[in-house]
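User: Second chain of the day. Same drill as before.
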Amino acid sequence: MSKPNSAAMNPNLITSLLVLLASFTLVHLFYEGVIRPAASAVLATSGSSSLFSIWVILKDMEQQICFSLLFFCLFLMGYKLWRLLDEETLYTRDFLKDYDKSLPLDVDLALSDLEASKYKENPAMATWINCIRRFKNTRNVQHAADAIASSVDSVAAQLESGNNMIRYIIWAIPSIGFVGTVRGIGQALAQADQALAGDIAGMTASLGVAFNSTLVALFISLILMFFMHLLNSRQDTMVLNTQQSCEKHLLAHLHN
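Assistant: Same format as last time:
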């Protein structure tokens, strides 16, 4: 089984695929058991007013796919946020607090302690390890400070690339809604002869498919964009705290 990407804070591939499959399966079962039967009942009894029913608005295939992707995307963002909150204290911690700052740092011992930690793959501690390794090789504090900057930039880039799947889903959901729009308009045009003959029920239903799919897709996209903004804010805060912690604590140890 593949391991989670620690820097990007992504779940491993197997977990992601299982959650994606579970999301599509559960949403499909809910649609078949609740939404589509309710929509059919409304359409059979309410006439033209049924077009405004929430069941009718949600009943089509495109909306089902959008909701499945919504829950999968929320899982990805929730996992990242849980990782950030679970390890939040690490981003401001002095990992060498047991070392006396008034004495020269035993670089080999410090590096050994950090590499033995269970948090060694955490982005914050990995930045400390990279910085101390650079200092060990060069014995130059400025070079170590440069290592902090490059490591923090690398963490930020990994976090950004780790959000690619989420950004793709947020882009794909409105596109799926537009697919439903094209499908509905195509169905409506195919029933133009019936509409000219006076039977507009089929064309009205098809246009409902067209507009409802886009409406639901855009609404879901707005929800995901809001949570994406919250996630990006937490990630930016994590990167900033990591840099400040290194500059405040680590460089203080290395200056002696």
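The two ends are 44 Å apart (CA to CA).

User: Great, on to the next one.
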